[in-house]
Design a protein that fits this description.
single chain, 325 residues, alpha/beta, 7-stranded mixed beta sheet, 6-stranded parallel beta sheet, 10 helices, 30% helix, globular
């Protein structure tokens, strides 16, 4: 018997229910993982509220966790009981004390990385990796704009971008978050609640604009972010914490300088096991080498996940947040 969080109907944080269940033996290509730490991410809110549709109701949310393999299916070859593993991938179900997970989506945790760090870095760290190395490949000397720089992805990505030789402009919502962003790779910080970020970006770049904007905020920042780009710049819209981006005339991109726009997700960039192993390996290497420090700034008991969701939605969190089974 284990406990897990179940959502029977989409809605507010009160939809998250603590329930017990029996966990069957893992399937032939699965591993049973006893979780030691579970990552909290804004995508979990999207599934809880119905912005993203879960495969069925009821469902157990969560896409990221770390733990220890307790049992393996008959066809699993590269993992065994006792291995420390982490994952950031469908299927949903991480909000549980233990679960069965497709073995192909779990990776061994590198030596020198503890379980809590692994649970905090898999989704956010691999997101930062594909943003900086694939969606737009950051080069030494690039001046980039990263919205929500004090968030979980932001703190990792801004450190990493600086390590890659970029000059980072970060936008944040408070003086406290501004201080955190400056300590984690941002050369310039814009407090968007009291400054016009388009004007500040143009001022910082002497009117030229930046080659790339990374935006997980969505509706509140998208159109203004296009005005921060230089000619043929790239808008990477990878989230929508303020709401969905409204439909717009694609001709705007031509008028503003032949801009590129992409709406990627991590799961498109870890679609094969080779891609997953590559990105996870580079994230672990960045942490072990000291290029990136993972900030776990909040932890909550899994049973109190509703409070964690309310704090995340209320922008009362910084860095990474963990749920502890």
């Amino acid at each position: 018997m284990i406990h897990q969080i179940r959502v029977h109907e989409t809605g507010g944080a009160e939809a998250l229910r603590w329930e017990s269940c029996e966990l069957p033996a893992p399937g032939a290509d699965e591993v049973r993982v006893r979780h030691t730490a579970i990552g909290l991410n804004f995508i979990d809110v999207y599934f809880r509220t119905g912005v993203y549709a879960a495969p069925q109701l009821p469902f157990t949310p969560g896409l990221e966790a770390a733990g220890v393999v307790e049992a393996v299916g008959a066809e699993v070859q590269d993992l065994q009981a006792g291995d420390r593993v982490a994952y950031a991938s469908p299927p949903l179900g991480a909000y549980a004390q233990a679960r069965n997970m497709p073995a192909a989506r779990a990776v061994k945790i590198a030596d020198g990385v503890d379980d809590r760090t692994a649970a905090a870095l898999m989704l956010k760290g691999m997101t930062a990796h594909y943003l900086l190395r694939s969606a737009y490949r950051v080069k030494p000397g690039d001046m980039i704009l990263f919205h929500a720089a004090a968030g979980g992805v932001g703190l990792i990505a801004c450190q990493w971008a600086k390590h890659l030789g970029a000059r980072v402009i970060g936008s944040v919502g408070s003086p406290e978050k501004a201080e955190l962003a400056r300590a984690n790779g941002c050369e310039f910080v814009i407090e968007y609640n009291r400054e016009n970020f388009v004007e500040r970006v143009k001022e910082i770049t002497d009117g030229e604009g930046v080659p790339v904007v990374y935006d997980s905020v969505g509706q509140a920042t998208f159109m203004d972010s296009l005005d921060c780009l230089k000619m043929r710049g790239t808008m990477v819209s990878f989230g929508q914490s303020s709401g969905k981006v409204a439909p717009f005339d694609i001709g705007v991109l031509s008028a503003k300088g032949a801009l590129f726009v992409t709406r990627p997700t991590l799961f498109n960039y870890t679609a094969t096991r080779d891609e997953l192993i590559y990105r996870a390996g580079e994230v672990f290497d960045a942490v072990v080498s000291g290029a990136v420090e993972i900030h776990i700034n909040q932890t909550y008991p899994l049973a109190e996940v509703a409070t964690a969701h309310r704090d995340l939605e209320g922008r009362r969190t910084t860095g990474s947040t963990l749920l502890l089974p």
